C-alpha cells in the first residue's frame, strides 16, 4: 500500500511541475521558445520505450525459474536506463548550446528541473534494479540458492515493485515528452 502511495506522491509532484511549466508558457503568451526541441530527448524516449518490454519479461522469467535470463533482463534494463540518463544529459548540453540555460529563461528552467527530477527517479529505480540484479546473480550460482530465491515471496514482490515502478516512470516520461514537444 505504501508503495502505491509513493507512486501517487510522485505523480502529484510531476503534475505540479508540469502545471507550473504550462502556466509559465501561457503567461509568456503561449509563444513557443523558438529553439528546436533537443533531439536527444527524442532518442532517450525511444530507449525508455524499449526498456519497458524488457523489464516486463522479468516476471515471466522469474515464474519460469530462469535466473540467468532474469539477470540478463535486469542487466539490460539497467543498461537502457543508463543510456536514457546519458541521452538526457546530452539533451541538456544541446539546450545550453542553443542558449537555453537553467537560470535565464523560466520555461527553460522548468525543462531542466522536470527532466532532472525524472532522471533522479530513474536513477533511484536503477539502484533498486542493481540490488535486485546482484541478488539474482548470487542466487543463480547454485541450485539451492536458486530454489530459495525463487520460492521467496519477498523476491517476487520486489520484482513486481520494480516492474510497476519502471512502467510508471516510463508513462511519466511519455507525458512529459508530449508536453515538452507541444509546448517547448
From TrEMBL:
It is a multi-pass membrane protein. The keyword Transmembrane helix applies. GO terms for molecular function: cytochrome-c oxidase activity. Gene3D superfamilies: Cytochrome c oxidase, subunit III, four-helix bundle. One of its GO terms (biological process) is aerobic electron transport chain. Residues 1-184 form the Heme-copper oxidase subunit III family profile domain. InterPro entries: Cyt_c/ubiquinol_Oxase_su3, Cyt_c_oxidase-like_su3, Cyt_c_oxidase_su3-like_sf, Cyt_c_oxidase_su3_a-hlx. The chain crosses the membrane at residues 40-58, 70-90, 110-134, 164-183. It is found in: Cell membrane. It comes from the Bacteria. Keywords: Cell membrane, Membrane, Transmembrane, Transmembrane helix. One of its GO terms (cellular component) is plasma membrane. It holds the Pfam family COX3. PANTHER family: CYTOCHROME BO(3) UBIQUINOL OXIDASE SUBUNIT 3, CYTOCHROME C OXIDASE SUBUNIT III. Belongs to the cytochrome c oxidase subunit 3 family. This is Cytochrome c oxidase subunit III.
Amino acid at each position: 500500500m505504501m508503495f502505491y502511495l509513493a507512486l501517487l506522491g510522485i505523480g502529484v509532484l510531476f503534475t505540479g511541475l508540469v502545471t507550473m511549466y504550462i502556466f509559465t508558457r501561457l503567461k509568456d503568451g503561449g509563444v513557443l521558445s523558438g529553439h528546436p526541441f533537443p533531439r536527444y530527448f527524442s532518442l532517450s524516449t525511444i530507449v525508455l520505450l524499449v526498456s519497458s518490454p524488457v523489464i516486463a519479461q522479468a516476471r515471466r522469467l522469474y515464474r519460469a525459474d530462469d535466473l540467468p535470463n532474469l539477470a540478463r533482463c535486469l542487466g539490460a534494463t539497467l543498461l537502457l536506463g543508463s543510456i536514457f540518463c546519458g541521452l538526457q544529459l546530452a539533451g541538456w548540453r544541446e539546450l545550453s548550446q542553443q542558449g537555453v540555460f537553467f537560470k535565464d529563461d523560466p520555461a527553460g528552467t522548468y525543462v531542466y528541473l522536470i527532466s532532472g527530477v525524472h532522471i533522479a527517479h530513474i536513477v533511484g529505480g536503477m539502484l533498486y534494479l542493481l540490488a535486485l540484479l546482484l541478488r539474482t546473480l548470487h542466487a543463480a550460482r547454485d541450485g539451492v540458492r536458486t530454489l530459495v530465491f525463487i520460492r521467496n515471496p519477498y523476491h517476487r514482490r520486489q520484482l513486481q515493485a520494480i516492474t510497476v515502478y519502471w512502467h510508471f516512470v516510463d508513462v511519466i516520461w511519455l507525458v512529459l515528452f508530449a508536453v515538452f514537444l507541444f509546448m517547448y
